[in-house]
Amino acid sequence: QVQLVESGGGSVQPGGSLKLSCAASGFTFRAYTMSWVRQAPGKEFEWVAAVDPRDNTNYADSVKGRFTISRDNARHTLHLQMNSLKSEDTAVYFCAYGGNSNWYRHSWGQGTQVTVSS
Asked: I want to staple 59 with a disulfide (CB 3.0 to 4.6 A). Which of 23, 64, 73, 104 is the partner?
């Protein structure tokens, strides 16, 4: 069964840090480009970052220099290190297959909530 399960969210003050994780199962994780996407309340999904099978990364301008995406192919896990968090980073975060222009999910779980507030 194909699964993507996110964890690691929480509530932090502006300027704080969080590290998100996505546990993948049921497919050949190492062969896929993987992304993080987010959805803020009342807004559409926003692509955040992607990493390809060769560990090449790219980021949305809104998070460049603050967020770092990484993958652990041995553990089938995707990570997102988020530093210097801002209130506008508040959203539910999901991992997804694909890159910035073609990301997708077969089904949606709860994601992981990130709240940045003073």
From this structure: 64
What is the Cα–Cα distance from 69 to 71, expressed in whole angstroms?
Answer: 7
Based on C-alpha coordinates, what's the Rg of the chain?
Answer: 13
For residue 44, count other CB atoms closer than 10 A to its CB: 6
107 confidence band (pLDDT: 50, 70, 90): confident
Ramachandran bin of 15, using left for φ above 0, alpha for ψ from -120 to 50, beta for the remaining angles: left
Distance CA 23, CA 58 (A): 20
The size of the chain, in residues, is: 118
**Unique residue bearing structure tokens 């993948």:** 24
Q: Which long-range contacts (CB under 8 A, 24 or more apart) does 52-57 make?
A: 52/99
